[in-house]
Amino acid sequence: MTWVLALGLLLVLGCAAKQPAAPSSAGPKYGGRLKVAMGTSIPIFDSAYASGMANLGIIDLVSETLTKINSDTGEVMPYLAESWTAEGNVWTIKLRKGVKFTDGTPFDAAAVKFNIERMLDPATKALTRSTWTMIKSVDVVDPHTVRITTHEPFGPLMAQLSYAPMGMNSPTQVQKLGNENYHTAPVGTGPFKYVEHIKGDHTLLSRNDEYWGGKPYLDEVYVKPIPEAGARVMALESGEVDVVFNVPPRDVPRLEQNPKIRVIQPPAQRTMHVGINVTRGPLKDKRVRQALNYAVDKQAIVDNIFLGKTYVSDAPVAKNVFGYHSTRVYNYDPEKAKALLKEAGYPNGFSVTLTYSPGRFLMTEEVVQAIQNDLAKVGVKVTL
Hints:
This protein has 384 residues and is an alpha+beta fold. It contains ten helices and 18 strands. Strands 10-11-12-3-13-2-14 form a seven-stranded mixed sheet, sandwiched between helices. Strands 6-7-9-8 form a four-stranded antiparallel sheet, with helices on one face. A three-stranded antiparallel sheet has the order 15-1-16, with helices on one face. Strand 17, helix 10 (364-376) and strand 18 (381-383) form a beta-alpha-beta unit.
């Protein structure tokens, strides 16, 4: 199904209930553990195999990328790469000097080449390998200069290299442990060092005192999965955790009244959509796919589930993402949906399965139930 919802990730920052925030004039102080609650557990602590932007955001504290994206402007910013130039399909990238992985291995052009080639190697079976197949070769020019050649000119390359799965990992440690076991003791250049990851229970990181960007203020970052949104919010309000992701919009007004809690809604960058298998059954027919779009009241989902804190997207990407271009939006028209289904030979509808991951995205359960109810009205039975 090709409709999408562009969602701003709601992030709530707050102190423990018994520890009110210090006045801003006091400035930050060294020490302390930051406790973070997320909807899902990090699947595996290896940037090459992990998924989920919140999960990858934690991994990025250990394994950093070459560039970063300004969430307000979409601008590509230097990070482990300091500068770059392009001539046709050849990119010359200057790397930050004086950076080391926390096992002492130098971060240099050889390390960049190793990480990119690890991602591209079919034997690695990296989760996002197909994202990087525009890269033809990686060459070391000198210790602090790497050259990337793409199969053809590819303007978004440096933006692409900000994607967390291309986080830089210590070649020494990867070679020592192998791809299958590297996640048990990952080593990066980031502000924090890996301590332990107990899947389904918690992840613990400790401060990297030798961090190239300056000594971090926090001693530790502790990440705990709490799949149920209400339980996450309760953990925040009770002081059990300091930060929670994916806050239900219905809770925002109450949380904003709490002087110890701050609600942050960054610019929307992620589009949520229902993908379909167009190779089998009724979904092979374009008219059926159009009918499904007409049958779902997307604006009602925005208004009633997200309380207007998002919008119905008119493109596969959000408005502030590179490559955005406005395209068609299907209006809500169940009668037209029924007519298309009848024309396609399904006057009584059909059955289909919709698979989703509970807790991974904001209000997922409510959204899929709304889709299920809307499609039932035009005869399409959805099993969740």
